[in-house]
Amino acid sequence: MARIFDVIEYPDEMRDEIVHRFPEGGAGDFQMGSQVIVRESQNAVFFRDGKALDTFRAGRHTITTANIPYLRDLIGKAFNERSPFTAEVYFVAMREFADQKWGTPQPIIVKNPGVGLGIALLQGFGSFSFNISNPQQFVTQIVGAQGAYSTKDIAGRFRSMMISKLRDILGELASKQGKSVLDMTGLTEEIGAAVRAKSQDDFNAIGVTLKSFYVESLTPSSKSAEELRAMGMLDMQTYMQLQAADAMRDAAQNQSGGAGLTAGIGAGIGIGNLMGQAFQGGMQPPHPQGGAPAPQPTAPAAGPAPDVMNPAQAAAYLQVSEADVMKMITDGQVKSKQIGSQYKIAKKALDDFLAS
After folding, report:
1. From CA 324, how far away is CA 353, in angstroms rounded?
2. Whole-angstrom Cα distance, residue 230 to residue 105?
3. Which class for 202: exposed (0-12), middle (13-18), buried (19 or more C-beta within 10 A)?
4. Is 232 left (phi over 0), alpha (psi -120 to 50) or beta?
């Protein structure tokens, strides 16, 4: 049986809460003469059957049809002339929620013509602030329509709305205005203002005002060829070219053949020029300044095959192309281990494949 409440209040400053349900669990019964106490930073919204009925602003109120006219209809129509009547009350914080954090959970893909792969993966983070401008509309749209009132759920929805607008704006800058990634990283103030302006109608529709949106950082993402392929952004041929570019870079940095990630691959920085040459020139190394083409690497001298090989060594051992080796790995025909961005294949796995 629902508890009858004589005093309806939430004595909390609500510094970490956007909305608080009263009572927290189950239904509450309220009766004529009950006191509704609303603090300066709050509004209280009566709610029933998916609808926000009316709002009490800051102050002390007594539930009576004599001084609160809306209760005549509330009691008569919504509650069949009975008292106590069952409802929920949502206390809504009316203060500004400042310095809220946002970030891109996944990189945003934008065009970056003429550099590397011609695409960029951008990640960003920053802060925003908001306040509830229409508590009755807010409760109707968020609590009634979405069934959510926890701060985590509400703030998560706000972030999703803003990141969606950020994705649109970055796409427009690249496709319609021809802005490069370097241009975008220097336009954080303009991008922040554009996100706020573009989000405002969506926020107003749920009774919220987006006060500010700041982009503190917008940078290329560091993704390896493996991660890009897992995101569905690379076909096998491009993937193989990037793997080869990784190997060339690693060989130049570490003669022992250490593995590493292709930093900045999405934006085509660092190894971006090397990848561009790989796509256009069949992986030919760049020419030395003002000289003849660089000599091509020669095949290693014949010798016993190592017990553990990389794809290039496995290709030489099988006398096939490296692309054929990678296809056998991805098809599950040859067992391998991935370490960083590199694959390692046991000689025994190759011998088993040949014997099968």
Report:
1. 13
2. 16
3. middle
4. left
Instruction: Report strand pairing: 119-132 vs 108-111.
Output: antiparallel
HEC assignment per residue over the chain: CCEEEEEEECCCCCCCCCEEEECCCCCEEEEEEEEEEECCCEEEEEEECCEEEEEECCEEEECCCCCCCHHHHHHHHHCCCCCCEEEEEEEEECCCEEEEEEECCCCEEEECCCCCCCEEEEEEEEEEEEEECCHHHHHHHHHHHHCCCCHHHHHHHHHHHHHHHHHHHHHHHHHCCCCCHHHHHCCHHHHHHHHHHHHHHHHHCCCEEEEEEEEEEEEECCCCHHHHHHCCCCCHHHHHHHHHHHHHHHHHHCCCCCCCCCCCHHHCCCCHHHHHHHHHHCCCCCCCCCCCCCCCCCCCCCCCCCCEECHHHHHHHHCCCHHHHHHHHHCCCCCCEEECCEEEEEHHHHHHHHHC
Give every residue of the chain whose pLDDT is below 70, as ranges: 1-4, 27, 64-84, 114-117, 145-148, 222-239, 241-303, 340-341
Is-contact 259 247, C-beta < 8 A?
no
Distance of alpha carbon 237 from the chain centroid: 28
pLDDT at 322: 80
0.90 cut: is pTM over it?
no
Q: What is the structure's pLDDT at 243?
A: 66
Q: CA–CA separation, 331 vs 275, rounded Å?
A: 25
Angle value at C-alpha 258, between 256 and 262, nearest 5 degrees: 140
94: nearest Cα among 58, 60, 47: 58
The tokens for 79 are 């509650």
Token pair of 146, please? 């979405």
Ramachandran region, residue 80 (left: φ > 0; alpha: ψ -120 to 50; beta: rest):
left
| pLDDT (0 to 100) of residue 6 | 80
In sequence order, the β-bridge partners of residue 91 are 20, 44
Over the stretch 39-53, which tens digit does the pLDDT of each residue have?
999 999 988 777 777
Nearest to 343 by CA among 351, 332, 355, 335: 335
State residue 230's pLDDT score. Answer: 67
